[in-house]
Design brief:
CATH topology: TIM Barrel
CATH class: Alpha Beta
Helix content: 40-55%
Shape: globular
Strand content: 5-15%
Radius of gyration: 18 Å
Order of helices and strands: HEHHEHEHEHEHEHHEHHEHH
Number of strands: 8
Number of domains: 1
CATH superfamily: Metal-dependent hydrolases
Length: 341
Amino acid sequence: MEDAPEGCAPLCGVDGVRLHADAVVFDAHVDTVLALERGRPFVTRSGTGHVDLPRLRSGGVDVQVFALYIEPKYKPERALARALHLWDVFQTALRAAGEGVLLCRTVADLDRAAATGRVGAILSVEGGEPVGTDLALLRALYALGVRAMGLTWNERNAIADGAGEARAQGGLTEFGRELVAEMELLGMVIDVSHLCERSFWDVLDAAHGPVIASHSNARALCDHVRNLRDEQIRALAASGGVTGMNFFAGFLDPDPDRADVRRVCDHIDHVCGLVGPGHVGLGSDFDGIARTPRGLEDCSRLPVLTEELLRRGYREADVRAILGDNFLRVFREVWGRAAVG
């Protein structure tokens, strides 16, 4: 058995299959809506891609955040129209899923999904271009059920500079600060994945509650601009937030050929060593990545991750935290603070 991270005692005799089935599994980021738009079925098992309802159930996923990703070709003029189109695509999938999926807008919805055995779906927007420079559009997205937003993708927008703009040394704009305040007022989860470092620190300075990185790894293990430095991981944890592990092979290891389920757990080990097991979660980026780690080829394979964590000596409570309790805590806290209904 490999050494467990500090604070995690060795564990023997726990049934990983039982634990995974009983735990809350919360994935903070997939790009599946784009695949649905291109015709992949959602309610029947597909032989392509990474996520559909049967595979979510096979993988024990209880809560799934579905991103509305706005491709660069739609920015900036057509970003809002594109977001609305993808929203409509997802509504069609929800109707087809019937009682299998519940769109969660409130803490009560999360509880209802759990009580009825439905997959809880949460909508996010990846990149704030649909908002433009108008907070009324943010409120409109909220009214449509969007409950989280990544402020940028890789480029600069009216909110902040993205990870691809790091050389410009730009951060959060004045409008971006207004937007952060409005998101907290509404009860929308602020997502710093894809921000450049200065933007990241500006957001942490402006925010008053928990902030997440929905799908970012540890830069100490893979020096990629999309990953977080140790001091960023510590700052997220200090806010009460969570860093979600991204499954893209290129973000897991400098040599993508080495990326497998063990390498995902290496990143989990690293984050736990920095801030403990209460601030790390899963943000697979399934259906948005070209190459998955061996052993985690799609969402149905997530029990393998639980088995590897147990093999490394993680306590049952810590495995539960990593699989979903941490992200669930943050979403419940942010939504519970909402000043609007």
